[in-house]
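INSTRUCTION: Work out how this chain folds

Fields: amino acid sequence; protein backbone structure tokens

Chain under study, with its fold:
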Amino acid sequence: MLTVPGAEIYYEVRGSGPPLLLINGGDGDAAVFGPLAGLLAEHYTVITYDPRGNSRSRLTGPPEEQWIANHGHDAHLLLNAVAADEPAYVFGTSYGGMVGMDLLARHPGQVRALVAHEPFVIDLLPDADRWHALFQEVYELYEREGAALALREFSEAIGVDGPPEPAESLPAPIQGMLARIRANMETCLAYELRTFVRFRPDVDALRRARFRLVIGGEGPKSLLHRTTEALAEHVGTGIVEFPGGHVGFLSHAAAFAVALRAILEG
């Protein structure tokens, strides 16, 4: 556990070699990266963690709106604690890619290279106002009817499936992970979604850095493909297709690890 302002951050470290920080999206935790981290630990010191207010990273004050900058500062402090002697490779998916961008802009000396997988940079879209209004409606539905209906509307709108139910037929560790992720949706809907999507990356910082954008190359095109394309246009970079869809790091862990290593070391 790492004490940071307003939270206790649960983290895991495995492997040896250059540090590699893996940053989750809004409802994930360290366990979601377990298979990928295990494969990458042959080549890197892999750092995974539960974002503040999610799973085992409890808040030490009352719940409140979260911002990407809060989470970027957590990542900065975590790297200070675990990998203070050298810059880290950073991989972030969805919101996690945005956290990595904030970390890079504020602490460029800590980031050797950043790979952002389907970042949810809604504010860069020409129809951003429509999406902000929809996410406000999702929040109000959550307030009236609870997380299940709100999550269904949100998932249908962006074209990405929500986490499955923790069925009893699954192994106990998987059940536990899915139960935590389902609970994290409450935090996401109440305190993260509407503020996280207001994040605008420092494009100049991204242009100066070793920065790559990647998307899931399988399945239907989602809103996160649009946001990734919008950021690529702003930065002036290409997009690499990775195995699987939005959670390809979990569903296609072995192929994903190979693709990520190729970018980090290319």
